[in-house]
Write a structure and sequence with these properties.
It is found in: Cytoplasm. By secondary structure, the chain is of the alpha+beta class. It folds into two domains: 111 residues; 166 residues, Alpha-Beta Plaits (2-Layer Sandwich), CATH 3.30.70.1660. Helices cover 51% and strands 20% of the residues. The strands form two sheets. Strands 2-3-1-5-4-9-10-11 form an eight-stranded mixed sheet. Strand 9 and strand 10 form a beta hairpin. The longest helix is centred in the N-terminal third of the chain and has 38 residues. It starts with a helix and ends with a helix.
């Protein structure tokens, strides 16, 4: 066993023991009658299963290699059996090495892979109307990529300008792997191009910010309703028109954290309230996770950036057909394809970089 893998295997043995403990707890009649406890244990078990199953397969391969080596080193062994043992060692050693690499990847990406719903907030930054048009283009790029992956996209809120750009748009995207792929998009995005509004052909630089938050299930975020103040008002439409004459706009304020959410997209107060609570839960979940997992978040910051909206993560240079991701020094000269939703190469590079950095921290 290499020194590099000894710590990893100790960690895997712990997870295997925890998995066995969960199985024991779930067979306890007292636990089985507690629905909340069963749901919590089932989720933990589901998260551990891929790692534990691979680890047990790995342990079997290691044992097989050891048994075949004993046979091979026996001076009295039949030559035919020795050949079989040699072939077995070769086959099981290859399986063992493949499994340990798969286990590493599963282990370091497991937390992210378990999140199947995100809230994505895209806002126009500096650059006026052109920034709003860029925010629209980013939303379209992410939507195309999501649809290509078979994920469900819901527009939760949208504030448009007269040219069809977005001052702000909030999307909910659901599907397996959605956080793994989109978790790297938080930060500042800069565009360099000749705007639709430019008559003299000059290149302008504008910006938009993206925030990506995992959407937790209600059971994962404990919000005391007494901590939330709700404000109700009329929703104003474009050009000063009233969306409706009822009080449908909702603003939620979570007093302990200072987090506020405003929702005025729907004509129904009930729908606005429901959406506002979903966004509040996501923002509060992220806030709680940052406090609880400072060490993990510190590692994540060094890998894919802090997610701070003021941090410039990417430049989209249209005259050069170039996309540059500044965190990993990646430049692709296929911006025309990327902006149409072909983000696979960018996402793959970010995931690989992230994985390698996480492996260093195991």
């Amino acid at each position: 066993m290499s020194d590099e893998n000894s710590g990893l295997l100790a960690k895997l043995r712990e997870l295997d023991e925890r998995y066995a403990q969960i199985e024991k707890e779930m067979s306890d009649p007292e636990v089985a009658s507690n629905v909340e406890k069963v749901v919590s244990l089932s989720k933990e078990q589901g998260k551990l299963r891929p790692m534990v199953e691979k680890y047990r397969e790995y342990a079997e391969a290691v044992q097989g290699v050891e048994e075949s080596e004993v046979m091979l080193n026996d001076p009295d062994v039949d030559p035919e059996f020795a050949e079989l043992a040699k072939a077995e060692i070769e086959e099981l050693s290859a399986k063992r090495d493949t499994l340990i690499e798969e286990i590493k990847e599963t282990l370091v990406m497991a937390d992210d892979a378990s999140i199947g719903s995100i809230i994505m907030e895209i806002r126009a930054g500096t650059g006026g109307d052109e920034a709003a048009l860029f925010a629209r283009d980013l939303a379209a790029m992410y939507t195309r990529y999501a649809e290509k992956n078979g994920w469900k996209v819901e527009t939760m809120e949208m504030s448009a300008n007269e040219l069809g750009g977005f001052r702000e748009v909030i999307l909910n995207i659901k599907g397996d792997g959605v956080w793994v792929d989109f978790g790297y998009e938080s930060g500042g995005h800069r565009v360099q191009r000749v705007p639709e509004t430019e008559t003299q052909g000059r290149i302008h630089t504008s910006a938009a910010t993206v925030a990506v938050l995992p959407e937790p299930e209600e059971v994962e975020v404990d919000i005391d309703p007494n901590d939330v103040v709700e404000h109700v008002s009329r929703a104003g439409g474009p050009g000063g028109q009233s969306v409706n004459k009822t009080n449908s706009a909702i603003k939620l304020e979570h007093v302990p954290s200072g987090i506020t959410v405003s929702m005025r997209d729907e004509k129904s107060q009930h729908k606005n309230r429901s959406k506002a609570w979903r966004i509040l839960r996501s923002r509060l979940y992220e806030h709680q996770m940052q406090e609880l997992n400072q060490e993990r978040d510190q590692q994540r910051k060094t890998m894919i950036g802090s997610g701070d909206r003021s941090q410039r993560i990417r430049t989209y240079n249209f005259p050069q057909n170039r996309l540059t991701d500044h965190r990993i020094n990646l430049s692709l000269y296929s911006l025309d394809k990327v902006i149409m939703g072909e983000l696979d190469e960018v996402v793959a590079a970010l995931k690989e970089h992230d994985k390698q950095e996480r492996l260093k921290n195991l």
